[in-house]
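Appendix B. Chain record.
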Amino acid sequence: MDASGETHGAGGACVSAVDFSTHEKLSPTRLEALRKMDRAHHLHPFTDHAAMHPTGTHVITSGEGVYLYGEEGKLLDGLAGLWCVNVGYGRTEIGYFVWNEWNNLSLTNVIFAIMIIGFVGMLLDLFFARLQMWVTYVE
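Structure tokens predicted for this chain:
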């Protein structure tokens, strides 16, 4: 985190540092900067971009349980559970479980799994190459 209260992520990208317990509001300047970055760099797959860009995107600052908090207040996140957040936001017990499992993970098992995946991939490549030699396409 730098002096402006921003955290610099991978590649130097700036993201807002937010205290998830307070659900703080963004300043108008910061909100406009985030919307500008969003227009320039983010593709929203289920959105009509022509209709969205004149008004700007909804900027979310935090999440807790099934709710998101942002510039418009508290929103029910009904779609997130479809793919990735079906257990809710801010579930620290899941983070603790993953952390403990990661710390107990044996490096030998990871290396062995990577080797097996690579070997099976090579065998499948050889198999499909041979299979392709027997298949003829008629136009």
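Further analysis of this model is presented in Appendix C.
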